[in-house]
Design goal:
This protein is 37% helix and 17% strand. The chain is built from ten helices and eight strands. It has helices at residues 11-20, 33-49, 62-68, 81-88, 121-127, 143-150, 166-169, 187-198, 214-218, 220-230, and strands at residues 2-6, 25-30, 57-61, 71-74, 96-99, 156-159, 179-184, 204-209. InterPro entries: NAD(P)-bd_dom_sf (IPR036291), P5C_Rdtase_cat_N (IPR028939), STEAP_metalloreductase (IPR051267).
Length: 242
């Protein structure tokens, strides 16, 4: 399959590109095609180090990346969603759109200061002893519902991967024994994404429900970060046990 990762130059996009490039054609999307090309070359080099010689990752602009793909992952911040969808809308036909978006912007969460002022990990942890991250509820309930409302008819949205820490996803030496909540209204599209979850070693997809349930999964991300910060843990994920 061809998978476009819009904003694939960023934190979470890198991990998806590396993990899926072993079995799929990956297209890194960016606002700047040169940046996309540079990142794609960097990711291919990493894959070569791990013994994969196929240069299956390429980089182009967001719109062309979406146009060429079967699956389009929105690896961008909540505040950039509407402008990116506006750009790619003309080329959307029957692709599956995947939202990993958590509305948790630093500027909209009044307790989070400018990251530049908190340079080292200890200061960061000290600050969050008295403060915490919060989920910033979008007007329509969740990022997924907001995105679904912007898509043309016939284009399915699947919401997943919200609780996966970017650093661990991009580290191919780490196996990710996490459950991944998957939400959406189109069961066939969800099954395709279940397989993409299973393509990452030890990850397990769990069906959470229709698009409206995405709020529950999205809002777990600030919870995980708060727990990590207060309990000297790092990059924690979710596993449901019977
Ligand atoms: N980081 C995590 O651990 C993590 C985990 C789970 C879910 N998520 C979710 O994944 C999404 C991306 O997070 P991230 O940490 O990867 O973000 P990020 O690195 O800050 O940004 C991702 C990409 O967004 C693009 N971008 C920046 N400003 C933009 C603008 N004004 N308009 C359009 N595109 C813009 C940039 O790509 P170009 O400059 O190349 O266009 C950038 O590389 C977020 O919604 C987040 O909630 C993140």
């Amino acid at each position: 399959m061809k998978i476009a990762i819009l904003g694939g130059t960023g934190n979470i996009g890198k991990g998806f590109a590396l993990r899926w490039s072993q079995k799929h054609d990956i297209i890194i999307g960016s606002r700047d095609k040169e940046r996309a090309k540079t990142k794609a070359a960097e990711y291919n080099k990493i894959m070569e180090k791990y013994g994969f010689d196929a240069l299956s990752i390429k980089g182009i602009d967001n719109k062309n990346a979406a146009a060429e793909s079967d699956i389009v992952v929105l690896a961008i911040r909540y505040s950039n969603v509407s402008s990116i969808i506006e750009q790619i809308k003309p080329v959307l036909k029957n692709q599956i759109i995947v939202s990993v978006v958590v509305p948790m912007e630093k500027d909209s969460c009044y307790m989070i200061p400018d990251r530049e002022t908190i340079e080292i990990d200890t200061q960061f942890r000290e600050y969050y002893k008295t403060n915490y991250f919060c989920y910033n509820n979008p007007p329509s309930g969740s990022a997924a519902e907001e995105i679904a409302a912007l898509l043309p008819e016939g284009v399915s949205l699947v919401s997943a991967f919200h609780n996966v820490p970017a650093a661990k996803l991009a580290d191919l030496d780490i196996s990710l024994d996490y459950d991944i909540g998957v939400c959406g209204n189109d069961m066939n599209a969800k099954k395709v994404i279940f397989d993409l979850v299973r393509a990452i070693p030890d990850m397990n997809p769990v069906d959470v429900g229709p698009c409206e349930t995405s709020l529950m999964v999205e809002s777990l991300t600030p919870l995980l970060i708060n727990i990590a910060v207060r309990n000297q843990r790092k990059d924690i994920g979710i596993k449901f046990v019977d």
